[in-house]
Amino acid sequence: MNIDRRLFQLLKEEKSPFLLSVISGSMASVMLIVQAYYLSRIINAAFIDKWSMNRLMPFLALFALFSILRMLFSWVSHVKANSGSGIIREKLFSRFTSRVADLGPLYSRSVQSGRLSNTMLKGIEALDAYYSSYIPQIFFALFTPVLIVCAIFTDDWISGIILLLSAPLIPFFMIVIGKRASAVTEKQWKTMSRMSGHFLDMLQGLPTLKLFAQSRRQRKSIEETGENFRKATMKVLKIAFLSSLTLELVGTIGTAVIAVSIGMRMMAGQLSFRQALFVLVLTPDFYLPLRQLGTKFHAGMEGVSASREIFDVLDHGASLSAAAKDCIEESAAAGQSIVFSGISYTYPAGSHPAIDAVSLTLPAGKTTALVGPSGAGKSTLINLLLRFLEPSNGSITISGKAVDRIALEAWHRQISWVPQHPYLFNATLRENIMIARRDASATELESALEKTGLAGFISSLPDGLETVIGEQGARLSGGEAQRVALARAFLKNAPILVLDEPTSHTDPELEAGLRCSMQSLMNGRTTVIIAHRLETIRDADQILVVSGGKITQSGTHDELVRTDGFYRDSLYLQKEAAI
Amino acid sequence: MKTFLRLTAVVRPYYLWMGLAALIGFATTGSGIGLLVTSGYIIAKAALLPPPGALQLGILGVRFFGIARGVLRYAERLISHNTTFRILAGLRLWFYDAIEPLAPARLLYYKSADLLQRVVDDIQSLENIYTRVLAPPVTALLVSALMWFLLGVYSLQAALLVMLFHLLAGIGIPLLTMKLGRGIQSSIMDIKTNQQVLALDLLQGIGELQVYGQLPEHLAVMQENEKEMLGLQRRNAVLDGMHESLTGFIMNAAVIAVLSALVSSIPGSGSGGIFFTVITLAVMASFEPFLPLPASLKNLEADTHAGERLFEILDARPETTPPVKPLPFPANHVIRMVNLNFTYPRSPLKTLDNISFTVEPGQHIAIVGPSGAGKSTITSLLMRFWNTREGQLTIGGHDIGLFDQENLRRHIALVSQKTYLFAETIRENLLLANPEANDDELKKALADAGLGHFTPKLDEWTGQHGMKLSGGERQRIAIARVLLQNAPVMILDEATANLDSITEKEVTATLAAVSSGKTLVAITHRLKSMEQFDSIIVIDKGKIAEQGRHDELMRNNGTYRRMWELQHSGKDS
User: Fold this and answer.
1) CB-based contact (8 Å) between B264 and chain A?
2) Domain coverage including residue A84
3) Predicted confidence (pLDDT) per residue in A346-371, tens digit
């Protein structure tokens, strides 16, 4: 659908502030004409009729009164347009964030996060100029000139005709030039996003650049990007400003023509001084809203370009099964096996399936380990179980019920997840752990810390549990972050447990210490675990070897050790490497 | 104020451009006034029914000013925008130059995407310092000064009156608006910063938020923030509208005042009336440059705020500075630490405590110990990300501070646990290590690092932070970089920690091949193939616990043996 139409659709949902704005603005235009009338009468009376100050007073007072009224009306108009735009932005923001939420972690990860947050925060803000200035201005550009021409017609129809003849030139030029400008503006918005992404990348990678003694050299790349941006933008602006030049010229030359024409007719006695002055004072105000439309069009265009990225996200994966959201079936996962039947998954850009017709069973309360070379599809299987991905084919069921029929939130309530790179929020350690269960008691929290070996680490911090971590605070090592994630899992106490390399960043000493408590975590829960270190999983009830998107082998440690294949090979390798 | 002055100093190279833009801006507004004034002159003169031809001067005037205004306006906008973009590019470079020596030691707390994104935004908002902050007051001042002068020639009284109203519009109302809106702009910026953090938490932590059922709440907080910001922006709009309307009102008040003052001065003759008309119109037009002043003030507040935050980062002193006369990297690069102590700022504990050891050229040593023992700090010191404070760190017998940092890093290759990949092509990411390498060399390095299947993909984009690559692939890219760098000293800081055992074995073999004949420092907590090292240094809690060859340490029955047994228990089935 046409972008302008979509943006206008949003406007239609919030009509009233814009209507008020437009009505007040129109009243301000009426006041403007009345003011011009009184001004021309006052000057005429003083200049031609030689009135004294006393006789002029009432007119001056009326002039003042109308200027106050005009001030108030234009103020209201400004404020209302802004609040209308605010309401739309608030709505759009909410729709955008919930769409991002629905798209899930794999989408966010696939897009440069700087770009996505740029669209979320700045793209929506860029729409402000569109709604608060450009849209009302379209109305004023039509209404005010018509009103003024009508007023001028009552005094001097020839000037009215001149104005009417010059006016259509303005929209004509605007359409001709504006079309090209809008395409270029859009390109420019993209360049700008990219440029700020590039600069950000450079700053983040600065330590790496320094490692390779390249940091001075990259200066040139920043300089070039900036220079390219300037050139690209100036190219846009040369065109964009050409339209305002034309508008400006139509306005100023129109004024000049009218001044000369009324001067001539006054000499011929066809026009009085008062009429001439009235026309002259109003003429610039006839062109002003049209000229302003040119400037505001440019500002509005930026919003339109930004909105394309907003709508891209809003439309992305519109096919996501919304059905599951309505479904509020609670399901008790405890004691239920999970069955994958004929599951396939192909990544959007992938040429062949990452998971190819896999069928497997995760027995209730038992531990299933996934092993296999990197890129074999282990993480994809976990993402499917977590429902971060939807299978292209096949279904996942629990006690015969398809999991995609269960509300996503209800499904997630059943799962504890320890990812390989856990994300730590910009909050205190306590909040980062308690996110798993807000109402956990102090004893439960303490026991989780104890079991994950975090207690000692936390007591070494000056602020203890209140230490702010994440991007803005202290940074935790990979192993510590994983232990935070484990502590979350302990607190959550859910029947299904998903462990994706839970101890890959932990040293063996600590891991040995954790093994016992991890065992207690896995006990009685339906567990899926990925681990490179095979000693972590030798006690698993079932070991599945994943390779090339298929399950190539399955069995217990003892069974697999006796069979040729990946498991025995890597076990042998690890042992060999160790000895 | 101080921040503002520092900011103006940063944009000093662009003063010439700004001056030019300001002059053209002044001429543009002047032409607008000229157009209205000459038009007024035509009709006032015509009202007196002069002989034909008397309007010639006026007609010439309106034509001239009419065209001049349009063309000048176009030129002004082009030049001022051009200036803006020059300033933006300049600010980026200025910031990069200033921050480059600070990385990474001083940026420990600014390493994240969010904080840097904030920096990028702050710089972006400063680009407008000319067009939106500096230019409007200058134009308004020039136009009103011209007006006072022209009016003063005719009537001192009128000139003083107009001056009064100009001051009211140019200083009085802006001060009022500023007083009423104080802090709104900084609150908006603070909320935006906060929103940036929340957006980052959302975009990168969305999995956790979903699984822990915190997503609705997180979204609600963001929505609340957005609402608060919109509320503040609405208050801003109210003030803006007020300022704009009041300026219009003051213009009308000025017209009334000037009219009243000049009425009595219209004598019987015509010229008094002509002036009366012309001056009234001129006064009306002279208020046009006052309209952008409110925005200018608001931007001043925002820019100062942005400037403060940038200076806060940049005012840190760099941790390491290059020596005046750097030594060349010595051929005999024996690395020696003597009684080295190191404590991070803001940390109560010593990270390294009295460390002494020697690495002869060509020697392969391992530094092992539990995580948090201080192993990686040794890397940071060797790469000169941090200065040594107590004790000595020498290379070839010279203090490490005597070498140029860049030269030093060119000779010491590092593969660390976390590899940063730029959002560029594979090729760009590899060329970093050796800008002169040709495609064949790049492909060979990829193949040797175990990424043979990447050789046709040199031009493929690696995605945000290289997220399109698996952890193992990222490490192998890092190894390919090291191969390209071809430095005499190699440091492996947990380089294979994230690889599966098969890949690990392959990569370890590659590394062994590459490092033969080179000096190697391997930092690890996984005790594998330890026999290959000439010496193993065991670090625990910042101290050297033990040192020796694998078999010696095993015989010692100390920390090392305990670690080794723990890692190799239960493997014999």
Assistant:
1) yes
2) 3-315
3) 887 777 888 999 999 999 999 999 99
